[in-house]
Write a structure and sequence with these properties.
Oligomer: single chain
Family: Belongs to the LOG family.
Distance between the termini: 6 Å
Strand order of the largest sheet: 4-3-2-1-5-6-7
Number of domains: 1
Helix content: 40-55%
Keywords: Cytokinin biosynthesis, Hydrolase
Low-confidence stretches: none
Mean pLDDT: 97
Largest sheet: 7 strands, parallel
EC number: 3.2.2.n1
Enzyme class: hydrolase
Number of helices: 7
Order of helices and strands: EHEHEHEHEHEHEH
Protein name: Cytokinin riboside 5'-monophosphate phosphoribohydrolase
Shape: globular
Number of strands: 7
Length: about 180
């Protein structure tokens, strides 16, 4: 059963509004369904937009932020619980422990690091959690193309596919979560 959704996403504010709309929809879904959000805890970008809507719709959230990011004044005031850690590795570890599934909204290098960490550690058997790529506006198309090339050229085993799913938008991600919860 999915109770806690881990979120990886952009901490940038100067991105297309379509991505903020997806963050609003995700936050609303989490809040209205009394699910929990675990995320990076920053007060910028898609992180803050999702958190704002989780809060608006009555949801619970935990932020996991590094001392460095907090020291830059980027610590959100929205989380019900904030965990401060020293390193990004600790942050990923705690998020992986607490989440039941992950959604990757569009993001930059930090998001990519988090995505691949979850997939690689699942493949090695450290956990069995999946990640949903929210491919809004085709954001992850080139990345998925590269991943497919890794399979076709023998650099990655097809069994890595078991650890993620590519959804065309947040509506499809939400359908997958609802379906998973009904099947359990």
């Amino acid at each position: 059963m999915i109770h806690t959704i881990g979120l990886f996403c952009s901490s940038e504010n100067e991105i297309d509004t379509i991505y903020f709309d997806e963050a609003v929809s995700l936050g609303r879904f989490i809040g209205e369904n009394k699910l929990r959000l675990i995320y990076g805890g920053a007060n910028v970008g898609l992180m803050e937009e999702t958190a704002r809507n989780v809060k608006l719709y009555g949801g619970y959230m935990t932020g996991v932020i590094t001392e460095k990011i907090s020291g830059w004044g980027k610590k959100s005031k929205l989380p019900d619980r904030m965990i401060q850690v020293k390193t990004l590795a600790e942050r990923k570890q705690i998020m992986t422990e607490l989440a039941d599934i992950f959604i990757a909204l569009p993001g930059g290098f930090g998001t990519l690091d988090e995505i691949f960490d979850v997939i690689a550690s699942a493949h090695l058997g450290y956990h069995s959690k999946k990640i949903l790529f929210c491919n809004t506006n085709g954001f992850y198309d080139k990345l998925i193309e590269q991943i497919e090339y890794s399979y076709h050229s023998g650099f990655a085993k097809n069994s890595y596919r078991d650890h993620y799913h590519v959804a065309s938008n947040i509506t499809e991600c939400i359908k997958i979560i609802k379906k998973t919860n009904k099947e359990i």
